[in-house]
Automatic annotation (TrEMBL):
It catalyses: 7,8-dihydroneopterin 3'-triphosphate + H2O = 6-carboxy-5,6,7,8-tetrahydropterin + triphosphate + acetaldehyde + 2 H(+). Belongs to the PTPS family. QueD subfamily. It comes from Pseudoalteromonas xiamenensis. One of its GO terms (molecular function) is 6-carboxytetrahydropterin synthase activity. Its EC number is 4.1.2.50. This is 6-carboxy-5,6,7,8-tetrahydropterin synthase. Pathway: Purine metabolism; 7-cyano-7-deazaguanine biosynthesis. It comes from the Bacteria.
């Protein structure tokens, strides 16, 4: 018997790529279970599928930084902390954070195939014995507009958004006087493709870092939040510093104000997404 659940959840996370650097991503998760009927004449109760499998996904990879074991760099776990440092296309990246901020995916890269293998390896053993196999489909949201991949951290967030490198694949919609502006959307998406959005409030000097060794061409960030102490150094060319927090509300407001500077006589509307099916709208 085969059981399926479409749109089970969305994985919002970042991963390290040997070519692109830290990449924010959002994948919709579909699940298919193969197995025998249990004493309730079910393969698995839909409630358990939604609760148990989603919980494991949330705990294992969602809102984390996924590090491929074949990364061209250095990473280690020690004293409940994770540290990683590497270079991609001549750019530097280094992070030190609580261990819960990262996960390790077997292979030279984090992609849909390696992530499916990662999920299957931890979820199938946790399911009842009558479930014989599990399949995952991971897919991005259908693009109705231009989009960008971004990573960030929200130190004021009580939940997992405080992790200093997690991210999203996000659509961007911009209107002037009620008319959609694809050119402006593309310009912003191109500028922020694979970007790290840092908050000016979290920026620190390289000398103040406790763990990470930064390079002269890096921006440095550090903060203490409820999950612990976080540090990051990342090449300036791959970072944009905002004069506000990097919540989607602040991102939408920031973009609306930037567009308004260019078009002061127009009514500006920015619809900024945070992953799939959610976000914020700002008017200027």
């Amino acid at each position: 018997m085969i059981l399926f659940v479409n749109d089970l959840t969305v994985i919002d996370f970042s991963y390290l790529c040997n070519q692109r650097g830290p990449v924010g991503e959002s994948w919709i998760v579909d699940v298919v279970l193969h197995g025998n009927l249990n004493e309730e004449s079910m393969v698995l109760d839909f409630g358990l599928v939604k609760k148990q499998i989603k919980r494991i996904i949330d705990d294992s990879i969602d809102h984390k930084l996924a590090i491929p074991t074949g990364l061209n760099g250095r990473y280690e776990l020690s004293n409940d902390r994770v540290e990683v440092e590497y270079e991609f296309n001549g750019h530097h990246f280094a992070m030190n954070a609580p261990k819960s901020s990262a996960c390790f995916v077997t292979g030279d890269s984090v992609d849909i195939q390696s992530t499916i293998a990662f999920l299957k390896s931890i979820i199938l053993p946790a399911l009842p014995s009558n479930v014989k196999d599990i399949e995952f489909t991971l897919r991005p949201e259908h693009s109705r507009s231009f989009y960008y991949h971004y990573s960030h951290g929200l130190k004021k967030h009580d939940g997992n958004c405080q992790r200093i490198v997690h991210g999203h694949r996000s659509l961007i919609e911009i209107e002037l006087d009620g008319i959609s502006m694809p050119r402006l959307q593309k310009e912003r998406a191109d500028k922020w493709q694979d970007i790290y959005l840092g908050s000016e409030e979290d920026q620190v000097s390289a000398e103040s870092l406790k763990y990470v060794v930064a390079k002269p061409e890096d921006y440095c960030f550090a903060y203490e939040s409820t999950q612990g102490y976080f540090e990051l150094a990342i090449a300036k060319e791959r970072c944009d510093i905002l004069p506000c927090d990097s919540t989607v509300e602040c991102i939408a407001d920031y973009l609306a104000k930037e567009v308004k500077k260019e078009y002061p006589d127009k009514k500006v509307k920015v619809k900024a997404y945070e992953g799939v099916g959610k976000g914020a709208i700002s008017l200027a």
